[in-house]
Amino acid sequence: MSGAPTFDGLVARVGGSVGAFDRDQWNALAGGGNPFVSHEFLTALEDSGSVGQGTGWQSAPVVISAEDGPLLAAMPAYLKGHSQGEYVFDHAWADAYERAGGSYYPKLQIAAPFTPATGPRLLLADEALAAPLLGAAEQLCLQNGFSSAHATFIEPEQQRLFEEAGWMLRSDIQFHWHNRGFGSFDDYLATLASRKRKALRKERAAAQAEVEIHRLRGADIDKVHWDAFWGFYQDTGARKWGTPYLTREAFDLLGERMGDKILLVLALQDGVPVAGALNFIGGDALYGRYWGCTRDIRFLHFELCYYQAIDAAIELGLARVEAGAQGGHKLARGYEPVETVSAHWIADPGLRSAVAEFLELERAGVVSDRNYLAGRTPFRQD
Length: 382
Hints:
The chain is α+β, with helices and mostly antiparallel strands and 382 residues long. The protein has eleven helices and 16 strands. Helix 7 (194-210) packs across helix 10 (300-316). The longest helix has 26 residues, at 349-374.
């Protein structure tokens, strides 16, 4: 790939992998708040073959530094040959552009792969480097004939940086649980309408009567646990995506490199794991990522993925739980609709104009949907 723009003595360049960069320098920019932009998480995906050759995700991190100096800015970026594993859907844009004679792929994706969780997408020593870093991404696309660049699930604090650079913003809805200073799950239940409160208690009791639940962190998670979870993950992945995104080795590497940031919840019957939910622990949030089971047990999905996550967030003093993409059923369990934002830069003026018009119409629908959903939460109205 061509192109190494300079900015007042600083140089922007593209790496072949996150692993090519110094871990401490990368993490100094990433901070400790979001596990999915850490050197450990991103290199685990690379080293396990979850991204790379044959996956349609080619690592292409864009960084800025002085000559032979430390990293001053970075973005986790990937050349994409498809639109799978992103959770922000641009298939219609790709189809329209291809029908018009254009080539939508490859495109540049600025993201934590396979991870619909909000976080920083520009890792900056100084906010003034946001515009040069985004400019470097644009130049990478222009100089190599890539159609577009897309940043997904951008944390609220960084959204204006993309907008100020002229990128188009797109909104969607996720469901997050908010910890309003609760000391226990019962404290949370007390905020619900009576009928909803009784329903949640019944769901928890029914699920817990069928299984023994264990929460594991760090060194408590061993190969046996990962083997069990791999079976759950494969089952869910095969049903949802056809082929699971992560390889078996990815789980071992994640456990080795960032086990203190992982919460694995397992359900056992007669000592045998029958279901599991994998969560990552951030600075102010618990992120629910994967779930699976080998036995169909009523309400167990809700117990492991939603109620156990609430328990853990309260115990850890975390402000919220992000339970991933989709799932209107989360609403009835106290997960509230929140806006998620992506940003898009498109090289072709005609496609850019068409997408801008589409986004304007879509945005009105998203606002309407969010307002409707906000009125259907299970909380007391007094």
